Amino acid sequence: MNWIYLIIAGLFEVVWATTMKLSHGFSKWDWAIATVIGMIASFFFLAKATRTLPLSLAYPIWTGIGAVGSIIMGVTLFGDKIPGITWVFIALLLISIIGIKMTTSA
């Protein structure tokens, strides 16, 4: 169950990063409130996951999910342009996240 909490925490990290962009520097209050709620939810689920998962595993996976998810949201929602070689490094990041999970006994 703690791995599920960690995935949920990572997804909420994507939510708050995306809504922060939509808040336009916290000038749009509805998106600003959504950002704060996303942050609270992300930290809440990360805290639940780290009750039993080692921090050395949970934190990099949490940030990796947030990073890859935020890149995907930036490209799909905001039209961010990512150079081709950058996609190689994004793939390596994703492979690293999966590798961390697969090589741990937690």
TrEMBL record:
Its membrane topology is listed as: Multi-pass membrane protein
Query: Which terms are listed as keywords in the entry?
Result: Cell membrane, Membrane, Transmembrane, Transmembrane helix, Transport
Which GO molecular function terms does the record list? transmembrane transporter activity
Alphabetical GO CC annotations of the entry are: plasma membrane
Task: Please state what the protein is called.
Answer: Small multidrug efflux protein
- Annotated membrane-spanning segments are 27-47, 59-78, 84-103
Keyword DNA-binding present in the record's keywords: the answer is: no
Q: What organism, scientifically named, is this protein from? A: Companilactobacillus versmoldensis DSM 14857 = KCTC 3814
Q: What is the lineage of its organism?
A: Bacteria, Bacillati, Bacillota, Bacilli, Lactobacillales
